[in-house]
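DM from R.C. (forwarded with permission)

"hey, sorry to bug you on a friday — could you get me a structure for this? deadline for the figure draft is monday and I only need the backbone to look sensible"
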Amino acid sequence: MPPLILIVIATLSYVADFWIDYWRGITFLGEEVFYVALLPIIYHGVSRALGIELIIIFSSSIWLASTLKNIFKMPRPPKQLWLTKASGYGFPSGHALGSSVFWGYLSIYYKVLIPTAITLIVLISVSRLILRVHYPVDVIGGLFIGFLVITGSLTIKRAYVSRMGVKAKVVTTIIYALILLGLSYLAKTLTYVEYMTVGVMVGSYLGHALLHMGKEKPPKLTIKGRVIGSIIALVISFVGYKLSMYIPQDPLLLPHYLITSLLMIYVTGVLVERIKLFRD
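My reply, with the result:
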């Protein structure tokens, strides 16, 4: 149903002459602020196991997109042609890469979402061309790299991560984040994005590990617990995102997002469990 609705709205937008506004709305679904809102909801409202995997893999994709952009430094189309705001270099398209990783990975867990995932990935990618902020090679490259990220992540998970204990996973996540930061430093591609993604990875996984430490099985939350947890986490995530805009130096974003993510995952989880919004 969602794919059909999106296609119908696209047709109506063309007939009713709000074509460009429609594509601006679609491209928003690939913006980082949209995922800032969606990821905490998935973690606390849908599945903690899936949520933390998505946070790590999506953060990795954002780091990769930013790093590759600053390595290749390929231009976007001329600015006078743009029909929406954009920043940074062209290749690869962060929207295409991020959406393919997020929706692709989500649909692996929930097969019923495959039609919706394919539709959103295609529409978000096409929107970057229609709004004239990317060349086709940027979008195709983003989609291909996104496919490689998902394939690599699943391979590593099945071969190594699934066999690790909690402490080993925490140590591995920290080492992995430090490696990414080191690679960015060596490649001279350190920007606010790299500090942000590394902070989110480390803070989120530390929070997840602390939340489940000493528990054989996580509590099964009620619907009310899931809703309240999602709202609290969403508020923390949004406030942290807004406050980051007032931080004067990029390196300070790493501890900022580490603390924000820790609060979003661990503190929210503890609050929900303490007020006993779960089934025994």
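R.C.: lifesaver. The mean pLDDT is 89.
me: no worries. The CA atoms of residues 157 and 163 lie 9 Å apart.
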